[in-house]
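Researcher: Go.
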Amino acid sequence: MASSQNRSDRLYALMEILKDGGLHRAEDLAAAMQVSLRTIYRDMQTLANSGVAIEGERGTGYRAKAVLTLPPLNLTEEELEALHIGLEVVGAGMEGPLREAAESLSAKIDAVLPEEIGGVSRGFGFAAYPFAETTQALQYLEPLREAIRARQKLRITSTDQVARDVRPLKLDYWGRVWTLGVWDETLGGFAKIRVDQIAELTVLPSLFVEEPGKSLKDFLAQT
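Model: Structure:
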């Protein structure tokens, strides 16, 4: 039986595939992940239960997209992220009236979503396994944002104790998972780092300047 960490990695890989907005057959996903159809069906249900915007069903295929607006308010990506973070924190660490209030707020958000994406935010503020641990990433979000703005080099040590020096380029939030796009100076290439898998973050004394082949524009062209 695969470990929970392996399952978490597989679910993240599925999210990366699905978020292109295209329709993906379960058979193709199973082949890409080298698992059974039954496992893919279970994974899709797990993603949906965790609040990821999954559309589709067995026999037709699956797609996913992130929700970025809530009528009558128009929310920026950062505003939606802040709302998600607040509900995540309350859901993970509170009991009693505050948790009940967060559940009520989650239900109200669900009720005003556009009809064409109805239901995609079910359980909006409360992440189910295996993404409940993503709340551990909250401590790194602001330092990462500051490093991106300042073009500050970082040394990132992952939970498997691998350290690498990087140029932070882009912080993304999608479907419960934060990722950091970087130019990895240790490996000499672009990479995506899951923020919830950062064990230690060190700000290095040097800044970086934009260089051909290592810029955000180059990163986006390759992803």
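Model: The beta strands are 54-57, 61-64, 152-158, 163-174, 177-184, 189-194, 198-207.
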